[in-house]
Predict the structure.
Amino acid sequence: RDAVVAALHEELPEASVRGIAAGLHATVELTAADDERAIAEEAARRRLALMTLGEIRRIAPAGPATLLVGYAQLPEAAIPAAIRELAAAVRAARA
């Protein structure tokens, strides 16, 4: 998790990691202007698997886009490259 948080800070400094430092995923909050669905679609095109908070709740309240980034099956050495690709997907979805 620490490697994910560090890589996110480097690649997406506007993102905030929420929740406790435990578990198998990081909850990554982006801006209210970001579109979760567009980001998820762009990530999928780049062969990145992730979920959005909106996918797991029946009614997603208004608020910032939130990604659920799993890291349990990702070797630590691969995290920086994966987060770079995720950041590229976020930027592409913003364009």
